[in-house]
Design goal:
Length: 455
């Protein structure tokens, strides 16, 4: 079924949607459970266990900080980014935490937040378990959550028995084939189908304001990334490169280079990746690890395509959401589940489709663009060096943004007829992810993550 644009594009913080945003939301859900059941006032201790991929790369992805922020009552889209470091330092120093922002309890991260990389929970590689105890050591509540990618969080019960989407979509679809058929039957573009579905949830003015808010957040992130120098945190001592790229591109001589536009796309994507790596405010698109691709292609659209404005941006976001929902529902957008093909590959596919639509492509051409965008990312592994969302993640965003543009242009040069349908590519991605060894799926136990140090 369709996924709302506001579910797929979330304003939050870096560096990871599944390892930062998701765990923060899970911790906050646990706190709210304690509040609604009246148990918060009796809680004197909370313990958290992180399993599987969350444990193996959690430190580099900021999972520990995210859990502490969520337990403290913070939302990913509202937490004051500049105050995070101070709040985490205070918790570590005092061994105290303000649960839900209301109740001061003992909390020592060294013992109360445990990284269980030796095991996984049964339903997904990204598992968390929360326990609340009273002053006599009695268990008050226990809940398991799974961070399933893109900032989406489900309890064990929800994942075992997913509820039917109660929303009455005017144009439901479960596959690209159905999406094209629905559009053809009602003589609508894919953007119009997506808009009609969104407007069944909120008025047009509210929808457009929300789309503009997403675009503004992306622009703000790119602007910060292009103008902030420094070294990325985490120990790799990697300097920010986007500001240097910007300064080179602003040179009048280089601006006459026919490939300067491509370099600007690189700079846009890397600006987001570097902001994400520092834990800055970004838009999950559809994940944090792949968050630079769609903003980079949108900046290409608005900066280098004559006449493109906010209407085209909104169509881009709506169509890319329609495509992204197909991956989320029929495969995965979790690097821990299917590798980086589920993050960077999906973002490339979404961006290609959005750009093709914004450039006036037919529905068939848009579907073709999405197919091209993923077909050439099949099998892409997730092997972050040091467990950080930096190498190869930041460059990978820049590299994938260009194929998204190329995929859109290739699709527009044809009539939308092609041999491999998008649905087949999505299913192939799912199968490839299932076959992929766990060490290549956001565990930092294989690939570049282990071989880089040998070079």
């Amino acid at each position: 079924m369709p996924v709302s644009v506001f579910d797929l594009f979330k304003i939050g913080i870096g560096p990871s949607s599944s390892h930062t945003v998701g765990p923060m939301k899970a911790a906050l859900r646990f706190v709210r459970h304690l509040q609604t059941t009246g148990l918060l006032a009796r809680t004197d201790r909370v313990k958290v266990d992180l399993f599987g991929s969350l444990a193996l790369t959690g430190l580099g992805h900021g999972t520990d900080r995210a859990v502490m922020l969520g337990l403290s009552g913070h939302e990913p889209d509202q937490v004051p980014v500049d105050a995070i470091a101070g709040q985490i330092a205070d918790i570590r120093e005092r061994h105290r935490l303000s649960l839900g922002g209301d109740r001061d309890i003992a909390f020592d991260p060294a013992g109360d937040l445990r990284f269980r990389g030796d095991m996984s929970l049964p339903l997904h590689p990204n598992g968390l378990r929360f326990e609340a105890w009273d002053g006599q050591g009695r268990t008050l509540a226990e809940q398991e959550f799974y961070s399933i990618g893109g900032g989406f969080v489900m309890t064990a019960g929800e994942l075992r028995s997913p509820s039917t989407d109660a929303r009455q979509w005017p144009f439901p679809y479960r596959s690209a084939r159905e999406l094209l058929a629905v559009a053809a039957a009602h003589d609508l573009s894919l953007a119009q189908v997506a808009r009609a579905n969104e407007e069944s949830l909120c008025p047009r003015t509210e929808l457009d304001a929300g789309l503009s808010r997403i675009w503004t957040a992306m622009q703000d992130c790119v602007r910060r990334g292009l103008t902030t120098d420094g070294v990325l945190p985490g120990g790799l001592n990697s300097p920010r490169r986007a500001p240097r790229l910007r300064r080179r591109l602003e040179d009048a001589t280089l601006s006459r280079d026919p490939l300067a536009t491509l370099e600007w796309v690189n700079a846009f994507a890397m600006a987001v990746g570097e902001e994400n790596a520092t834990g800055g405010r970004i838009v999950t698109a559809p994940t944090n690890g792949a968050a630079g691709i769609i903003p980079a292609v949108l900046h290409y659209l608005t900066g280098f395509v004559p006449g493109a404005g906010i209407a085209e941006v909104r169509d881009f976001l709506l169509v890319s959401t329609a495509i992204g929902s197909l991956y989320k529902e029929n495969a995965s957008i979790s690097g821990a589940e299917v590798g980086c093909q589920g993050e960077v590959g999906v973002a490339c596919s979404m961006a290609a489709a959005g750009l093709a639509a914004a450039l006036g492509g037919s529905n068939e051409q848009v579907e073709n663009a999405a197919e091209i965008g993923m077909e050439h990312h099949l099998g892409l592994t997730c092997d972050p060096v040091g467990g950080l969302v930096q190498v190869p993640c930041i460059e990978r965003n820049a590299i994938a943004a260009s194929p998204a543009i190329n995929a859109a242009r290739l699709s527009l040069s044809g009539a939308g007829r092609h041999i491999v349908p998008l649905d087949v590519v999505i299913d192939t991605m799912r199968q490839t992810g299932a076959d992929m060894q766990a060490k290549y799926k956001e565990t930092s136990q294989g690939g570049l993550a282990v071989n880089q140090a040998k070079c």
